Amino acid sequence: MQCDICARKYTPRLPFNCATCARNVLYELRFENARTLVDKEALGQQVETSLPSNGPREVEKPGTSTSAQRPSLVSSRWDVEQTTAQMEESLERIREIQNQADVLQKDIEHGRAQIAKLKASLAQRRSDYGSAAHNLPTRRTATLESVEKGIKRIDHRWNTLHARTAEARVFLCREAADLYGLKQRRRKKGGMVREDYTICGVGIVDLRDLNSMLEHYPE
């Protein structure tokens, strides 16, 4: 039976698409069950009609032979056995239909549970996305401020470390000069005061004098 909503026919390989599809399948099973019950009732009435009644037996008339009644008795027994077999077959079909209906009902309940879970998950995702989109500018500003503060702290630490390193180098140079006996001597040359430095008794060449020396000794 084709669904009026989704215009699709149910098959064992194709799952239900909507509630109308499942209802249509159940309707077919219900019709089959009702048809089986009607057949069962008709067979029951036929069996009751075929069985001998519990009333008083009629007196056989003289001259009536039992051989004339045997074909009718055999036919009645055959009808009873055939009716009983049909009833058993109908009951078996009813049990199969009921089992199929139970399986379909379980599948429908499982599908509904899965749909409910998917809807809940989708609603939660939408809620999380809405919260994230709503708080995104605030979080971005807070993150930017935190990064800027971190950069300022690093710059301050770097400047402090650089100043301490320079002071340590000055101190080490001064201590090394004192250990090696750095001395300063002033003298006048050409009306100008010159400062000469010696360390361990060895004079330190003034770099400004190198230019004049290079002029006297060209390449």
Task: Characterise this structure.
By secondary structure, this protein is mainly alpha-helical. It has 2 domains: 118 residues; 37 residues, no CATH class. Helices cover 69% and strands 9% of the residues. A hairpin with a 2-residue loop joins strand 2 and strand 3. Helix 1 runs antiparallel to helix 2. The longest helix has 110 residues. It is rod-shaped. About 8% of the residues have low confidence.
Class by SSE composition = mainly alpha
Total number of strands: 3
Distance between the termini: 111 Å
Strand and helix order: HHEEEH
Count every helix, treating DSSP H or I runs of 4 or more residues as helices: 3
Question: How would you summarize what this structure contains?
Answer:
Keywords: Coiled coil. The protein is mainly alpha-helical and 219 residues long. 69% of the residues lie in helices and 9% in strands.
Main attributes of the structure:
219 residues, mainly alpha, 2 domains, 3 helices, Autophagy-related protein 14, coiled coil
Topology:
Layout: H1 19-50, H2 70-179, E1 182-189, E2 192-199, E3 202-204, H3 207-216
